[in-house]
Each structure stands twice: as structure tokens, then as C-alpha cells.
Amino acid sequence: METDKLKRIFRQYLLGQTREKETGAIDNWYQSFDNELVNPLSREEEETVRLEIWQRIQPELEKKKVHYLRRNLATAAAVILLLAGGLTYYMVNRSNPAYTEVTTAVGQRKTIQLADGSQLTLNAGSIVRIPKDMREERRLNIVDGEVFFDVKGKPSVPFIVESGPLTTTVLGTSFNVTAYRQVNRMSIAVTEGKVSVQKNGGTAEVLVKDQALTYDRTKNNTTIDAIDKSLLGWREGSMVLNDASFEDMVVLMQKNFGITLTTSQAGVRATRYTTELSTTMDPVKAAEVLAAIHNLKIEVTGHVVIVYE
User: Fold this and answer.
1) Per DSSP, which regions of 114-252 are E strands?
2) Residue 142 and residue 203 in one domain
3) How many structural domains is the chain composed of?
4) Which of 8, 71, 193, 227 sees the fewest Cβ atoms within 10 Å?
């Protein structure tokens, strides 16, 4: 095999561009080493490892002055051997994701039981990533949506929920996390026990039973108040709006009823919306009720609902 060809193959392999036969040959070579099992990496850590490996291998591949093919093979092998552990780390995690992603569709609610005995209930339009192995760390990530947690205590392994800028740590409790990506307000509401909530690595706030923390993305501030239990009505099949902006209402109506609300009027957009709707209602009927409560009118075209005064 010529030197230039060897360089090209290794480079294409690292970029995931090799042909099946070449990929198989290199994979078999890696498997000949006695690799140890590794702990799962996060997606960010995988990318960091990949970049570090490439940055350290690339200089060797770019060297123009080469005397003997054997010497090149030895040099490439030495570099790869030094980084084999890290590269295997990346390859294992790429083919075996460290988490399971659970989702709910428009208007769907779902309850799942975790291996540790904890129970999660997902609201409509939610995405949660759950570790495949929760023996050493119980760290979940709410990518989008709302989830109610009933956590079983296990003092040696804290239960951690990441939701955007907020990280909630708990040993055994029940609490609700609202973290829709397109909704301005996020909240953590505790119904039993006690949790610690930290924003972007700052000072942690401790919440006890019947307390709720609300984070305003626009103002970048948090408040702690008595819990509004009506906001937990979604578990019983209700969509609750409590002084919601028009933009937030649009997101929640789409998640729960699959319709898109829009308006061209500044007055409608500036209105704050408070109501409770059964998620079993016909979507258009739900929009009619919402509009009637706020003295507005609607015009329906397919899945789009125009709201006006």
C-alpha cells in the first residue's frame, strides 16, 4: 500500500468517508487490541474527543517528507496506538448511544417506569433523554416539554434533571418540570419532598413541598412562590394557561391540539391568556372557547386558526 493512499484512508476513516471494505479492515485492526469497557460520553464529550484525536493525528498525515513505507506505517500505528483508548471511546458511544430518547406526540401523554422504580409522566410534545445505565448516575435531560417525576430515594445516587439552564437535584420526591423550548417561562414545582435547583452553575435554590420556582428566559430572573396546583392539571387531561403570552399560548395549543394560532393584530398579540381547556376537545372547538373567553373571534383554514378582535 502506497504512503499517500494510507494517509488518505486514515483521514477518510476519521471523517466517516471510507468505503465499506476499508472501514471493515480498519475496524478489525482496532478490535485486535484488548480494549477495556468505557463509561458513556455525552454528545458534547464525544465531539470533544473526536476533535482532539483529529488534531493530534492530522500533523502526522500532513508530513510531506517520507523516506520508507515501513517507517510511515510505524509512525501512523504509533500515533493511533497512543490514542486508541480515546478513539474507541468515541466509536463505542457512536454505535451505542448512552441514552434512550422518549417522546410524546401532539396531544399525547405517556407514563414510563424507570429501572430504579421512579416514574415519569410526559406531557404532550415532550422529549426526554434517559440514561441506559442509571447505576452510578441518574441524570436525565428534558430536551423539550413538561414532565412530572415521582422519584424513588437512593441516597448514594442523586437524581438529577437537566432542563436548559436549570438543573434540579433530588434524593426522593415528586415534582413537575415545565421546560418547553419555545415557551418563555420555565418552572419547577415540588409536590412532595425537597429539591435543589441551580441555574447555569450559579447558587442553588432549595424548594420544599408546595413551592415552585419560575424562570423567565427574557428577563433572566427567577422567582419562588407557592405552587399553583391548577398548572398540574395536564396530568388529568387539561391544558392550563395562566397569564400566558400569545406566543406561549401558540406553542401550547400546537402541542396539545395540533393547530397553529396566528394573528396580525397587535392588540391580540399583547393580550395575556388565562383559561383551562380539556385536551379531549375538538381542536377547533378548543380555539373557539379560548377566543370567546377573551372576547375574540377566529377564522379557520385547515390547521391554521387566525385570531382577531
Assistant:
1) 119-122, 127-131, 138-144, 146-150, 159-163, 166-170, 174-178, 185-192, 194-199, 205-208, 211-216, 221-226, 238-244
2) yes
3) 3
4) 71
